[in-house]
Amino acid sequence: MRKQYRLPPKCELSPLRIGGGAGRARRPWWPPGRPGGGRRICYQSLSGKAPPFAPKYTGNAQLGFAIPVGANLQLSGDAILSFSDKYDMLGVNDPIGFQSAWNKVDLRVGLGGLTGNWEVAAIVKNITDEHTSHSWNPAVYGMGSYTSVTDRGRQIAVQGIYKW
Question: Where are the beta strands (DSSP E) in 25-154?
């Protein structure tokens, strides 16, 4: 039989929300001796070098709240900090193809009904207007030329929600 726990009727939960995550890139490890268990194979040692297409670390931290305002309204907000170390976007260890380390902050503030049936919110993504790219490729029209796909800069939006 499964036991269920319920909060007492007058118990209120904290209006604060906290979250986040992080990752760290690790290089493959070769045992001492020849790679591949003694068979003679060719391999490239990347000891001391960052792996292509992967930052050494990346992650995010989140903080949010929802508090009642007056008798029928609720004020809510969220902030997200995303971060990454530099990484090689070409895969050939060319200094021109590295994305530098970056931090981005997203904010959201909303005001809505206490029952959750409507809300109006202001949203700002990449509030610091950090310029990043997610893809670099060699260009076909010239030696040493590259094309880049840049990510969006600062974005500002208004969001309306109505549930019926």
Answer: 57-69, 73-84, 87-88, 98-99, 102-113, 118-125, 133-138, 146-150
